[in-house]
## 1
Amino acid sequence: MPPNSSLLQCENLSREAPARPGLFLLQDVSFSLARGEVLAVVGPSGAGKSTLLRMLNRLDEPTSGVVRLDGQDTQSLAPRTLRRRIGMVMQRAYLFPGTVSSNLVFGPSQRGETLAPEQIASMLASVGLESYEGRDALTLSGGEAQRVAILRALTNNPEVLLLDEPTSALDAAARDSVEHALEFLITTRHLTCVWVTHSEEQARKVAHHVLALEAGRVRSWGAPEQVLVNRGDSA
Amino acid sequence: MNHLFGSLQRGLIDCVIAGILALIILLLARRRAPGLLPELPFAELRGIVQIVAVGMILAFLLHGPRWVAVPVLAGMILAAADIVRRRAQRIRQAMPLALLSILCGAGLVLTLMAVTGVIPMTIAILVPVGSMVIANTMNTLSLFLDRLRGEVIAHTGEIESALALGAAPESALAPGLQAAFRACLIPSIDNIRSLGIVWIPGIMAGMVLSGTSPVFAALYQFVVLTTIFSAAALTCLIASRLVTRRVFSEHEQLLLRA
């Protein structure tokens, strides 16, 4: 999908460690992302990748800087409204006790809506989890659970999806299944994503842009072939 | 006079034996709860000084007007809230939370029972029964907040996942509140369930010893225990309403994390 006007914009975003003022977890990070684009965020542990995602949907408060969603300062949005528009998938699935279906209807139920059984069945089938509706969510394998967590985040129809290393806690087979599911969903739904990853290969495969962070600062930003070639360390 | 001195001496010896026994047992269990061992001697010393002081004050108050019970119970509520505050580590503004919860929960139940005549409005009954209700409420509330803190820290990922899905803080915290509420009330329910089988509480024994009919004493003991349960449950219910805004920021971000 060709890039158009900016959907997600980040201007000089910074966050100081709450217990240690003066120590920045993230400093002056700026980027912009058009609708349908995927941004891969790479960098070593402690670079501020997860902090960036947590500030984008306001699980953490920025110390300074602005995040704009479709031109609107996200500080002017109620946190719940913002989090429905910017969904997030964490490193671990953190499914709630209950069935797979009850996990999928959680988001819509928070705003008084529900999902039709056919919708649930179709969503599950799209990621290779046919007939999983009634399964106990806490008995799923890592890869299955993460695929349910991704679908759960999509039930709010977010404009932007944040992915915080969704495959890093999985074994190779499960990682492949989640990657395929994500690639399928990103392509078919034209999702706008900010995807934190440790894998350069993954970043090359899915991203339109790459943001390389180091010690809380932007080391480089640009097309994958530019940023990933120039990086001396392993992402 | 000699008799009084003798019973006082005997009582002090009994206290020392009981206190040492508790210390020995906690010493045996020191690996399970290393932080508790240094606390017990001070808690015992403080407890004995306080209870003896209260005994002396009660002896003085027994002949005073009924209204004196109100400031005495209010003082107990204040002290109980302060003890809960110390247990509720890392929960913001724990003192107003504990004070308001105990005041509204235990205070309302005690007032209701006194107004309806279930607890006779004499200082000799209001103060000891009130103190039992407040003390048990304090323990239950401490358990509630301690368990809630543990639940939140153990389930940070689930809570933040719920927030990230657009859930209200109350909804994200609901499973933790349910677990804490259930856990803190189990001892009170078990006390009612085991009444007369596992234990015959002190108030009943005292009433029988003072010549009250054993059946009436038994029924009254039930009244006291269910009053304790009601006060504790109402207090924790109020606390569960108040605690959410102390665990989350005004921007609905989880503040209590590992």
Note: The interface with chain B takes residues 57-61, 79-81, 83-84, 87-88, 90, 92, 94, 96-97, 106-107, 110-111, 149, 152-153, 156 of chain A (CB under 8 Å).
## 2
Amino acid sequence: MGRLTGLLVAPALSLLLGGCGSLLDTEPVTSLPEQTAISSPAGARTALTGAYASLTSSALYGGDMVVFNDLYADNTLHIGTFTTYADAGLYNLRAENGDVLRIWQYSYVTIDRANRLIEKVPGLTGMDAAEKDDIVGQAHALRALSYHNLVRTYGGVPLVLVPPSTVEEASAVTRATVTEVYDQIVADLLAAEGKVTNTNPNRVTAGTVEALLARVYLYLGDWTNAAAKADAVIGLGYGLATNYSDLFPAIAAPTPEEIFKVYFDIANYQLLGYYYRARGYEGRGELNARPSLVAAYEAGDARFTWSISTSPSMVTKWPTGDGSENIHVIRFAEVLLIKAEALARQNQLAAAVDEYNKLRVRAQLQPHTLGVEVSTQQEVLDAIDHERRVELAFEGDRFPDLVRTGRAVAVMGIDPFRQLWPVPYSEIVVAPGLTQNPGY
Amino acid sequence: MGTPWPSLTGGLTNTLTWKSVDLSFLFQWSTGAQVYNAVRLYANDGGYYSDNKLSRALNRWQNPGDITDEPRASYDGTSGARLPSSRFVENADYLRLLDVTLGIQLPERLAGSIGFTKARFYVTGHNLFTITGYSGYFPDVNASGSTANLDLGTDFYTYPLARTFSVGVQAGW
């Protein structure tokens, strides 16, 4: 009996195994190979969603990048337990800092996803030219935004404009100069100008492109173009929200001030409310406002009432700890600040004062009059800096703004080399062509 | 500056019997490994973090002229004592008495009187004592879960092995 069954079993098994080859030959269901991912209109739209999703990372607009730009500055105080945040709060970033690494890495994730869209979408069939332009335009803007976030904190970074095809190619990158990166950023934004037709402010819109151009031109010191692009945004019909408090809650009615925000909800949440709020108030008490910032607000400033609580002591800009509030990438108040500064830098002081007065009035403060509260160009610029600090507090603007205006060393008391973040050590290990910033 | 892999590990086990008493024990030892005591990153940091501090902080530097290896108190963290440091890398050599069992076999006559053909009572202790210079709970730790094969030798509030006692009876009938 045993020998017979042995004679039968072996051929039966081999039939079975030969026949179920196709059963075993399956493709992974949760990922697509790079060659086929963006090969159809549906694939392209999904990939665009993916590019926006990368901005929600807790390394970027979901947490660290927004935190670091206020924490490694005079706005935010570290009171919690993250050692990476402790380094930033004490102005002692080291090349091994894990969040410095993540901010770099996840910025390049967005860049990579944008690169793939820019490369593949123009050649698709089944999609009309207007939609292709819209998608590619949005991708250019996302790439420009990511490169600007990188260059204003790390300095010159590797310019990767096509997806690398091999690991060796990816490891062979070297750092471009700051000028080269800014040239690419401007080129990307100009390529997007006039192409983006999307109107949903949770994604890049035509106004986003103009606003980002205004911001980048301000960073470049190109006052004329900065003011011109700010005017372009104004011309598109944006305006200030009626109340400062309208801008931040999760279930908020749309305001004319939103230009581009990163969408979050209960399921895909950001961590800023959780970090800034105190324990027992939906937060973990990781961060708080620095005393110098608290003292900087004028009495009666509605922005203070909304953003900061004294008892309990915490930052209340995000009213809950569940992270469902959207995070503004750029909003109209910043555009007005850009216009005010660009005008002031060109000595058009009265016009500059008019612009920032709009923010003061919205914050229920008395407007300034040229010749009374401010008279000289420096006083106007100082007033604009004050408005920017209290208006955009905790939104991730302060540190690069201090560096841009040359005040970082004086305000933070740091060595000049610390105006650049270190290139992450583990990036230098995998890409030995990268040079470290001096001093690190 | 150190390695989490011991250069030598070993054990000694023996069972001694004398008449109806048996005693067995197992020692375990390890030398050559170091452990990064990450608890001290929060508990020996000069006061920046809110965690409770180890009593060694009482020996901190306080006045010029003090000679000690404990850094000064620095609530704002500017002393640098809160940074990861090689002073947290500690020697993890240890000798541990892992198992001791003392058993007594009841004579057959006594065993029969309670209804068994044979009975042996025993008491066992696990993890009775450890001789080590490590300042944390126990040097044979690994705080990592899923990456345990990659990052060994870190103690981050890792729960130590408990000392347990058990008593029992082996009976036959």
Note: The first strand of chain B starts at residue 8 and ends at 18.
